[in-house]
């Protein structure tokens, strides 16, 4: 069941990727990438290493909570009440289908495409910044997941999410069981604060803005996709508004941090500084 | 030298000064606290506030909905409510072990026999952790005698003796039964014989035939706990006990039969080779006693004794023989899991009611033992349904844990042995443990040496080589997996909202079984406003049971006024469109707030100017 879903994700994303690479990146950049990829990888080595180790850690740590967290479901619910239910008022089967698709496939694509697009730029700075920002998102998100134990709206307000709109259910979980397998596999149901779907999508959105001169056509697409993913987390009852706010804050923080760090200390620069220091 | 003395003196001085200061401080503080409290009261800031524990939707959608219905109505009458959402096992730990709640909404596993009320309500267990009396309800002069009288009776007399228990329960409300869910499952027609045995018990998985001689039976559970822990003693895993029933044998086995006249629950010989006869007890050999108190009852008046003969040459899954010693050990061990090594006995957090009926066990030889119960035959036979544990495994486990006898503690209901998943789950049951993967599956294999497979034994036997329980958290997805042939049966009962999804297909059989579990609201009667009966009664009148069964269970449940199966309920307590004792204050799901507030005032509480219910009179 799980492998079927994963295969479908891989298929959808691998159809979308070449199309969008051709559309947004262009043949020229891809051609230069073919000749320069070795040196670009060498330059980006540290960033690649950091993001892969964080992802690896993420994989192992997320399944089992370390048991140090504080139960916060009721605190969140008392603060924001039934805010997320406003999305139920506009729910239609078409919207549900759209947001379900966006939540899984759109999100995966949104995260993978910029990695390739920025790698295709001669200057690797953006590529390194993006990876570093991803790493920060995951790392900080992981710490917050450990500290805050909370269930999402679908677990707490199920009847409202299950029987809304014109008799349709926006409960991804009831009617698209494959999503349940997928999300269960990557996450525990108490990891909702902050919304990493939100923070990573917003991260991509901000980067799309920063690189608008290189990829002008990507910006509107990225914005639409990112906003859709963010709304989908609430529409589908997976996250609270507070999780989304925290996700947005996390994204801004991580982008700012990655821009400050990357380029300031490069390994070669550090090496030069050290050798210079040696001379004295 | 000089230094030394000074230090010494100094030390003493400091200590005595500290002690004096401490005493003075706590004395002055106690005055302080009183003052603070009265100031707070003057500010009229002591609205009644209750904590309500429940599981999230992933655990059970119906309990979430009931809890929120109750929350809404409690808030309408001016009570502040804080809901604590916990996973299934954390929920049970909070309620059963830690007693950390004012109210909880959950499903009670109950039992086929109403004697489960004995362990649920007897005041002896008010201090214990586990399924025994989580309400900490204590009413020794009134309630305990009623509970004891019913268990010593049988047949029609017992039916009469149960009535006052149920009437008292309906008045006293240590808990309030809400409804009994219809028990639906689906099975693939690849196998034949579904429904011959109840799928909550071992017999549901035995005697199944398949045309193609299928080697594997694939069952789905919505609950991940069997994939994590199968400790038969744990109170926080598998409340229904289905897995334990498959891994372990018991002397007798529950047989549920349904015909036009109703449902019959019988305990028939299982590990016992032949039917037992209950006879009045002559005398008790005090040295063999397994009684709970030091004062062994030597007065055998009213007790019954059965001689039970075990099937010969049965073995546990590790090859060790099953003997009368193991049976005697099991009953003693469940009464005190520390086997006398700890300062106070440490009874298991389950099976408390069953083993409390057993007064004495006398081992006659390897296969014969005499069991004396301080109860009638019905309750006596219920005592024969506990899992028989291998002495050699559990005795070793105890000794490993003792280590240092001086400092050995076995906190009741919460010490390692009754919680761990590290004890090898070796029983003598029809299936043996093979492997498990957390949150994914529990894999069992047929125990080829099980007695049911012998030619001269006419009992349903395990027909498949493998029995796998796969965790599938959703009823809707479970149904489609059974339909597609990916799985054979849903072992957990289906959630009410998914029942309409059962397809009309020749590949799928819809199974409806007699049910004895029920949804209920539990009170912590130990402290706070919930310790007052009148308050509990008023709270139960905020629950619209009829509406809950219609709207939250889509009609797939029966509203309850008594927590026992229908045949035990006296006419005056029968459901008549409303709870006969504590009817819902309101109509069609909407609370009559003014009348409900009046009920709380009549219960001795009052409202402040802001309409909040106050703690003080």
From TrEMBL, chain A:
Gene3D superfamilies: Phosphatidic acid phosphatase type 2/haloperoxidase. SMART domains: acidPPc (SM00014). Keywords: Membrane, Transmembrane, Transmembrane helix. It is found in: Membrane. The chain crosses the membrane at residues 6-27, 39-57, 102-121, 133-152, 192-211, 218-238, 244-263. The keyword Transmembrane applies. Its main location: membrane. GO terms for cellular component: membrane. Residues 133-259 form the Phosphatidic acid phosphatase type 2/haloperoxidase domain. It is a multi-pass membrane protein. Pfam families: PAP2_3. It comes from the Archaea. This is PAP2 superfamily protein.
Automatic annotation (TrEMBL), chain B:
One of its GO terms (biological process) is peptide transport. It comes from the Archaea. Residues 267-612 form the Solute-binding protein family domain. Pfam families: SBP_bac_5. One of its GO terms (molecular function) is peptide transmembrane transporter activity. SUPFAM superfamilies: Periplasmic binding protein-like II. This is Peptide/nickel transport system substrate-binding protein. It comes from Natronorubrum thiooxidans.
